[in-house]
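Notebook B, p. 112. Complex prediction, attempt 2.
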Amino acid sequence: STRAVVRAKMARKERKEITQQFTLKTPKGTKDWADRDMVLRSRIFDTITSVFKRHGGVTIDTPVFELREILAGKYGEDSKLIYDLQDQGGELCSLRYDLTVPFARFLAMNPTIQQIKRYHLAKVYRRDQPAMTKGRMREFYQCDFDIAGQYESMIPDSEVLCIAAEGLTALGIEDFVIKLNHRKILDGIFAVCGVPLGEVRKISSAVDKLDKMPWEDVKKEMTEEKNLPVEAADKIGEYVKLKGGVDLLELLKQDDELMSNESAAAGIKDMEVLFSYIAAFGIEEKVSFDLSLARGLDYYTGIIYECVISASAPPSEKPTKDKSQKPTDMDEDVSEYVGVGSIAAGGRYDELVGMFSQSKKSSVMPCVGISFGVERIFSIIKAKEDMSKIRANETEVYVMAFGGGKEWTGFLAERLKVSKQLWEGGISAEFLYKSKPKPRQQFDAADKIGAPVAVILGQEEYEQGKVKVKELGLGENADEGKDVEIEKLVDHVRRLLLTLKQQS
Amino acid sequence: STRAVVRAKMARKERKEITQQFTLKTPKGTKDWADRDMVLRSRIFDTITSVFKRHGGVTIDTPVFELREILAGKYGEDSKLIYDLQDQGGELCSLRYDLTVPFARFLAMNPTIQQIKRYHLAKVYRRDQPAMTKGRMREFYQCDFDIAGQYESMIPDSEVLCIAAEGLTALGIEDFVIKLNHRKILDGIFAVCGVPLGEVRKISSAVDKLDKMPWEDVKKEMTEEKNLPVEAADKIGEYVKLKGGVDLLELLKQDDELMSNESAAAGIKDMEVLFSYIAAFGIEEKVSFDLSLARGLDYYTGIIYECVISASAPPSEKPTKDKSQKPTDMDEDVSEYVGVGSIAAGGRYDELVGMFSQSKKSSVMPCVGISFGVERIFSIIKAKEDMSKIRANETEVYVMAFGGGKEWTGFLAERLKVSKQLWEGGISAEFLYKSKPKPRQQFDAADKIGAPVAVILGQEEYEQGKVKVKELGLGENADEGKDVEIEKLVDHVRRLLLTLKQQS
């Protein structure tokens, strides 16, 4: 009947709508990690973790979301980038924006901990505008090491800088520079340049953009958007172009106006002590004292630093650009001024824990820390790595069965048994999920996953309690294999794998 | 002036309100992990990971949140437990509820992957009612291993069961049982008992509660809440009390009514094949074929299983309870019927990937997997473990300086230098963040973190290019230490640490 045809048509249409009503993708700014990328990333984590442990670090794990009020008022202008959880009845929560604020909350909750070196490798979440931040993800990993406790000035600060240098070196990144500055010096500079006290953070966040845009644009933001007098901006401009080492410190000490500012003088004294420790650690060549470094976050109170590689440096000149050519897709990278950014960064934050503490006593918990940005480090390392040499799996043995004829069972049960024996011996093994597999299929499968050794169950040998162990991947030089008693299989394979490992 | 006093009072009051407007805690159902707990949990992860790798697993990492529509319609009654992210403009997202649906989404997005053994250790999120689930967290870890691909029936299923047994054994848990059932057999039972087709999932989710409540209550739910005729419920009751091994399979094969049901017959055939593989793996004693096992999730299509230990078994009898004593805090565990639950569970889900696939070809991606519940496993292991023997840090050397008198500098720069030398040699080392530390302070600090070796910079020895290396923690048997040339320090310490490790 026509009615039935119409109904069937409608049902089809409805079904089509149901299947098409979702897009098959990960949320914007997030991605899946798999295969060799995943192996490479794990290696980066392992390297960073071992550096952290070498410095006496212990690890903690905090929830991926925090009470919303814990995060409130910690991130300045960037607070708008925080992901909120929906109010489904109960507490209001947000995804963590970094690992530092949760660490400070942890310390405030555990006042018996008066000293800790803690590390934490975990994901953080930022609703960033992709147009401004190509390559910056909304979900990404941070690897943090922080030293909390009351200590003699600048000693933990120097160790954290040492960890920054050691970490990057251990990752095979050699051409980095640690840009270093001090919030107290910056505050002093802003004061002597005539920035009103209430405007300091605003002007500081403009200076922070110097790695993304040229001075002229930063000046424009200060004077036009933030109403700073042109003379004040120009004076700031003279300071923030200064960079160097201990020499710059000497230069600043000659600056009577700056030295008469209490904050600047304290910062310069800190830096003098710090530079002596940096020299003792032998990392002075990696450090650049750079007055243009400001860092965006509100909570820093002392030294601040960023590790950059040459690729992440800002352009020295504004490139000529055809203004008539409008960008067509705002999701694309529209700014030539966006470098890869810093690959590690951090600073001292002496008052963050106190913001969470109810009692006055526990409120004094000075902290200093470093955070490695894994995604950017990953891109740098991947570009240098021969990815084809990375194995996604670690299977050592492929268990096969050879045979034929009417009587041939395929030895599936026997392959399961031998595989189990290998697993229990700590050896990784796979086999073909097929009752009667052909030799070719099994060799192809072993080849595909790159297993270095085959254990072959031949019909006659197996009945005599023996299997053949054969090295794989030798091509024309393939050996004939060696018959091994089943009871001695695990030991034999273990020894063979050790030999192969030593050869490679 | 009075006005100034009033203003100051108001300011104090305001400040007090600001500091008190938040509660210092982690969100409900979440917690921080730290110290020795963290070390023990990491060990559990390492053990499980090495078992997964032994079976050829590769790992992937998916975002912590998914598009909301990806999770929709996958979890049956439990969908209400999903955490949603707030709509802040852009896509609607939710926190992942498990690792299985994101894995299926990953497979649908990557149709070139036709076979994969993937593992994934990560946190999942469920807005569970704490009253029903003491000890169940809202943020918790799952450790999943899944085999995807078209293979001969029951071979991957048997390997996944093998991984369950091997994983728990490797974790030192011996007294576990793998309760095993098959969705097709259950569906067949429901059919022959007269459950209408549309009611099967509802009745199945009632059966699923048999590990938490006695049969009488489950029957009540079926007949009163879900309107199943009493005779049907009674007939189901006869089936779901059956458990055993291959013997039960033989019993079911005698059941002509059940065997005439296509679904049941197919399930029973699967189980017969599976039991032969289980026997080959030698894990038949760990497996209990249990018709009462139903599993809550919608997406299972074949075998289902749960690993339980004796502590997680349901009580055989309803305990007498003083009904007059009302629970005062609904957040407390109000039910004696709540066991620790399963410590690992999983099943076959052949149609989940297809739900995401736009093309028909890629829609056939049968999967079977296992998920270890780390929090419960952690509780079991922690109860048996001597936690005092676990070190939270891995520091091997404490670098000290001894000296005194007017000329004594405290050797801080020298300690930094020696520490750096040790770090570069791959040795973990700490020192006191103090310019002129007393010997006692340094020994106490070394003792507190449990460092096994001290490197001591003595004023005279250091000037001769030597330091003292001393074993710590020997109490009265303390050795005098050994003077070592600074250039040979790393080698010497490395050898000493190796010796100490072999001794312990």
